[in-house]
C-alpha cells in the first residue's frame, strides 16, 4: 500500500434494534464509541482524510468524530447513496478510498491494509473484503470467475438458487480507486428488490466499463456488525480478549485475564501485575513494576513506576500516583497528585489535593473539598503525617513534615514541622461503667 488513502465511514443508521436514544454507533465497546474504533483504525492506517456520513439530528455523533468532516444523509436510500452524501469530500481524491461501517468495530488495520494493497496491485476499480459465514443468509454473495476475479456482488434478496448457495459473502468493507469512484457510484440505480442504491452494484458498473474487481478473504470474527445489545456484548468480549492479549504480550501479568476489563487506550507498563477483577476505564496509563490488586477501579489516571494500588482502590479522573506510592483498600482518589513514595493506605477520600512526597495519610482521612458550591484545594506537604480519622477542610495547607493529631478537623494553614490537633477535652469517671451495668440489671432483670 503506497498510494494515498481516504476513508468514508457510514454512520447514518439510528439502529432501532438497540432500543436506545443514542445513535447506534455511539454505543461503547472497550470504553469507546464504536465509531471511535473505526476512526482510530483509519488513523492507524495513516488515512489522509476520514469522512463520516451521519444521519439527521446527530449532534453528539458530529462532536465525537470532530475534527473529521461529516456529511448528512437525510434520507436512507441505500449504501451507495450514503457514500455519495460525502461526494463533496470525495472530489479530487487520488489513490484509495475505503468504505467502512461505523457499526463494525472489529476490522484490524492489518486486514484493511491487505485489501488496499490488493486493489492497488492490479489497479482494480473495487476491492471487496469477503468472508465465509456458517450461514450466508442476509449477506451479499461474492461471485468470482475461474481466475478469482470478482465479477458481481448479488444481494441476498436478488439471488437465484445457484447464487444463494455461494458462501463467500460481502463483509461490507470495500476499497475504491479514488479517481473513478464518483462516476462509478453515480452510475448505480435503484432497480432492485429493496428499491435502494446498492454500493455493491459498483462491481457491475466497473465490469461494464471493462474495469476489474477483486475479493480478499478475512476471518469471520472481524466482520461482526452490531445491530443489537447482544451483538454489542459479543463485540465487547472479542475486543477485551484482544486487549488482554496485547497487554500480556507487552509484558503485563494478568493473573485472571477474563476478569480484567480494559479500555481501548489503556496503557500498562512492563512487569505490571494485575490481580483479578480490576476495571480500567478510559484514559489510564500505568508505569512499570506496578501491582494493581484485586477489585480496583481506575479511570483517567496515571500510576507511576513501582506504585502499589488496592485491593479495592478507586482512582478517579485526574488521579496522579507517583513512583513507589501506595494507595490501599477503600481509598478513593480524585483529581489529586499523590507524590512519590506517599502512602494513603486505608479508607480515605483524597480529592482536589496534593499529597507531598513520602507523606503518610492515616486511615479514614477525608479531604473535605466541597462546600456545596465550590471545589477547594488541599495541599499536604512532603513528609507530613496526617493522623487517622482527620478531616481536612479545604482550602487548607499542611506544611512539609507537619503532624496532624488523629481525629482532628483542620481548617487553617499548618506550618511546616508543626504539630496540630483539635480534640475535645477527655474526661474519665472511675467505676462508672460497672455501676451503670449493675443499675441496668436491676431495672431490667436481665443478667
Ligand atoms: C450490506 C451489503 C451486503 C453485505 C452486508 C454486510 C449493500 C447493498 N449490501 O447489506 O452486501 O453483505 O452489508 O453486513 O451494501 N447505511 C447508511 N445509509 C443507508 C443505508 C445503510 O448509512 O442508506 C449504513 C447502515 O447504517 C449500516 C451500513 O450502511 O451501517 C450497511 O447497511 P445495511 O442496511 O445494514 O446493509 P445490509 O442490507 O446489511
Ligand atoms: Mg446490515
Annotation keywords:
binds magnesium ion; 19-stranded parallel beta sheet; 2 domains; UDP N-Acetylglucosamine Acyltransferase, domain 1; alpha/beta; seven-stranded mixed beta sheet; Spore Coat Polysaccharide Biosynthesis Protein SpsA, Chain A; 29% strand; 447 residues; 10 helices; elongated; binds uridine-diphosphate-N-acetylglucosamine
The overall pLDDT, averaged over residues, is 97
CATH topology of the largest domain: Spore Coat Polysaccharide Biosynthesis Protein SpsA, Chain A
Per DSSP, what share of the residues sits in E-state strands of 2 or more residues?
25-35%
The molecules bound to the chains, other than polymers, are:
uridine-diphosphate-N-acetylglucosamine, magnesium ion
**CATH H level, superfamily name of the largest domain:** Spore Coat Polysaccharide Biosynthesis Protein SpsA, Chain A
Indicate the CATH class of the largest domain. Answer: Alpha Beta
* Number of discrete domains: 2
InterPro entries: Bifunctional_GlmU (IPR005882), GlmU-like (IPR050065), GlmU_C_LbH (IPR038009), Hexapep (IPR001451), Hexapep_transf_CS (IPR018357), MobA-like_NTP_Trfase (IPR025877), Nucleotide-diphossugar_trans (IPR029044), Trimer_LpxA-like_sf (IPR011004)
Active site: 346
Subcellular location: Cytoplasm
Binding site for Mg(2+): 103, 227
Explain how this protein is built.
With 447 residues, the chain is of the alpha/beta class. The chain has two domains: 5-223, Spore Coat Polysaccharide Biosynthesis Protein SpsA, Chain A (Alpha-Beta Complex); 242-420, UDP N-Acetylglucosamine Acyltransferase, domain 1 (3 Solenoid), CATH 2.160.10. It has ten helices and 33 strands. The strands form five sheets. The chain has a 19-stranded parallel β-sheet that branches. The protein is elongated and about 105 Å long. Uridine-diphosphate-N-acetylglucosamine binds at residues 10, 12-13, 53, 73, 76-79, 81-82, 101, 103, 139-140, 153, 155, 169-172, 198-200, 225. It catalyses: N-acetyl-alpha-D-glucosamine 1-phosphate + UTP + H(+) = UDP-N-acetyl-alpha-D-glucosamine + diphosphate; alpha-D-glucosamine 1-phosphate + acetyl-CoA = N-acetyl-alpha-D-glucosamine 1-phosphate + CoA + H(+). This is Bifunctional protein GlmU. Its cofactor is Mg(2+).
